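pinging the channel bc i need a second pair of eyes. not urgent but kinda urgent?? the chain im working w is below, pasted from the shared doc
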Amino acid sequence: MIGTTSSTKVQHFLVIEDELGKRTIPLLETTCSIGRDPSNSIVIQSPSASRQHALLMRVTMPDTDSHMFRLIDGNLQGKRSKNGLKVNDHTCTTHDLNHGDEVIFGEDVRARYYMTNNIADVHFLESCAADEVTGFLSNLHNPMQTLTQSGEVLASFNEAAIVRLASFPELFSNPIIEINLKGKTTYLNPAAVAQFPQLRDLQSKHPILEGLVTLIAKDHEKFFVREVEIGTQIFEQSVHFIAESDLIRSYIVDITERKLTEAALNDSERRFRAIFNQTFQFSGLLKPNGILLEANQTALEFGGLHLEDVINCPLWETRWWTNSTETQSRLQNAVLEAARGKFVRYEVDVLGAKDKVTTIDFSLKPVRDELGVVVLLIFEGRDISYHKQVEADLQQAHSELELRVQQRTAELKQSNEQLRSEIGERERAETALQSSVATNRALINAMPDWMFRINRDGIFVNYKDALNTKFPLPTEEFLGQSLERIFCQDTAQPFFDCIQAAFTTKEMQLLEYQLESESNLCFFEARIVVSAENEVMAVIRDITDRKRAEDDIRTALTKERELNELKSRFVAMTSHEFRTPLATILSSAELLEHYGHKWDDTRKLKHLKQIQQSVEHMTGLLNDVLLLGKAESGNLAFKPIHMHLTDFCRGLVEELQITTNTHEIVCQLQEQTTELHMDEKLLRHIFTNLLSNAIKYSPQGGRIDFGLAFENDYAIFNVQDHGLGIPQTECDRVFNSFNRASNVGNISGTGLGLAIVKRSVDLHGGEISLTSQEKVGTTFTVRLPVGGINGIGENKFQMTFQPLA
């Protein structure tokens, strides 16, 4: 080695020249990593450089206070760089740097190593521009030239010891462990001692070293990586077997956070995939050139396709767009526009499974990266066939209405022509008409309608009243007043518009409006015609009775439709629910008829019981229908009796528990000390239906909670299951007759149980409510008045009914 006794501190520099230019870097750290990755201590820019290309290790010179730098090819795990390094045009894997050495990293990154103990030289190198350094460095004095070289000291350093010294930086933040082939630790860096305090005591029995020697001896591999779990932590262990010294070196990194992040990312991907595939809209991802990267399940099912049928294909060549070349060409143009960053949306007909053509609302949305470059296209499609059909129907209705308006207009024109003809005749007979003014006035006075003369500006000029009819204006002080002062704005403006239309078209205008009279809403019809050059005559008639008759007719039609719907649902229910038991009865009867003489009594009895059970099932259905019919017609009687409510609930649960061996009914019943007045029969209808539904719609079995409590003269019951649940959009219809939730699948039922429960609760003067979440469960809460009888105890007890074995 080179020794020095100089009191002046020697400074070390590396002058690097790469794609970033020339720069001077002081060597201050104990260990420097050199490479293309930004995490290195010294970053070099060149495609030929590796991400972790080399290590620069400071080595203290023996018996001196000076140090040197050793250059080592590769990273801490022992992996060499791709293109190696050269020192003074000689390829090497390790080299102790001397003043003026030239180093080439890869193919084109050059560096020179310099030392100086002149403080002025140090300040100049740290402050001057890189281009000013070249001439200065050529004259830089080597501070080591005046010192002696100790060849004996250098020779004493065994090469293996030097490599080991360079490979174990004391300041490395991750644990580094070295053991021999007997499993005994030969080196631990401070990070290893801090991370694994029991390692020195446990030696090869420690989890981080367990089985390591066996793996090396068995597989004869010099390098491998494994993961080790210790408690809640996960470590990545890079193992390097150094055959020359029979040592096993481990570099250990805590990857717990990375593993948790990977798990979170996988979970996020799974959730995204579930949402992506379950959406009702067609959606997918494209490259900017239109190549399909992903399509959701809705789009695939619509086209009767599999993902492999369309993946990596241009979207316009997939089945959805093959109904016409025009459709494909338009899509190609849309992709080009979206790739330029424009949002594209239009309606298009696409081809589905079984050649079904469907109209969709299609859109393409560009996705940009952080630089604003379009990297993906998101396509979406929403089925609007129904809306298009509605638009067509509306257009047809509009056309028919226009035709009717034209017909009516023609009729009015014809009437006007006739009126003009009559006016001519009246003009010719004006003299004769003047003599009959009194007669005409008498006739007008006899008309049962109010008449008002109103000028072009909407001012009331005169009027003629009508006997025994409602006054058609809000106030009796109206002469000389405008429409806006008499009527509210919602009536005055249409009235004024009709007056102007009458002057413009010379045709009668019809207007309906309404007024409040003695807390009643009255309807009036105004027929407005031009009566003079600047006046109109408004003939107003009370049409309240006619409007009420129309409302009554509409109400009757609505009720009739509801009745027809109820009948249809009843027929559908009875057809479905009676078919199975009738088929069972018929099958058992035919078997008894044809094979009864061959069977023993046990087999005959089995089929007879099936017939009895089917008959009992149909009888129960009919009883439910009859019971609901009584409730709907008001004939279901409420007959309260003295009863002990807690004992009643306990007995009812015992009866129902016998019917299932997969459910556990758990009761929490508050005890009562005095009997209450309630209808036991109706209570049995209520809670038999609620508990039976809880069992039926929890097909996987499980716990059912049944609770009873007393609060403020009310008995409060709760029935909770953990089954299918009811969709939120259907909760407000569950008490309708013949109504069943959409998610019950093949579970049998009539849709009458909850309707009977609701009627029975109403007869008690109580309330029933529910909370439900699909796939979580349903809770029904029933509140029944107890009539203020003081017989409620404070103690509660819990009882669990186990399912039958």
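so The longest helix spans residues 544-595. and The two ends are 88 Å apart (CA to CA). — does that match what u expected or am i reading it wrong
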